[in-house]
Specification:
single chain; alpha/beta; 3-stranded antiparallel sheet
Length: 262
Amino acid sequence: QAAVMLSRVARPVASAWHHASPRASWGRHCSMGEQPAEAGGSLTVIGFGSLLSERSARSTFPDLTGFQLARVRGCRRVFRHPAGIFFGRGIVPDTEGKRQCSSLSVEACEGSSVVVAVMQIPGLDFDALARREEEYELVATPFHALDGEGDEPIGEGLMCVPLAADEDFVKKWGLERYEVAYGQHGIKTIWGWGPESGILPCPIYLRHCVLAAEKAGPVAYASFLDDSYLVDRKTTIREYLKTRPDIMTALPPPSLMERYNG
């Protein structure tokens, strides 16, 4: 989940995205090879899930600097798409339909906001970041101070948002990559899961995100629980965890214990 310092000019936010073809409209869409960067060769990355804790963020980006919490306005978090890496790491429960495979994304939601983590990553190559976040589009997104004071954003960074359609994944990475990441696991769509689809968060990943948010402090923790939703866009993660207390007690496999522990 991620975000490049570009300007301090706020951009308009759409009131909603179409569920099947989400599109961020509050920032500038970047493409492979653009290499947007700050002076000194750093990218500014915005994390909204497992990167919320500095500990977890450093497990992914050991050389990060300037870690801080901030707020992105006009959006909410939704567990709405499967992540190929969860199948590859063997952490998708073998339940009917293997529907507990969802990762996290953000989508436009007027009047809402989410607490995020902002960090500078020296020497990070934009194309490499795009490959790491292959099912997303990287969008330059303004962020505001955590306390919410003032109308002007305090900076801008690259944040992961959904691709407009599955076809965009194939155009960027090829059909063979789609088959390796998704097709071989019986997944026929990345971003076509509607509110009634019943896709659910991958339990190990959800626990990881909750622990990261908790370590980030009470404001980030409350935001994650109350500003993150299941694919139905009605059930908050706080509400969902009340029905699934097993998620927070189930441990990752030993080989992933360090990585998936907030």
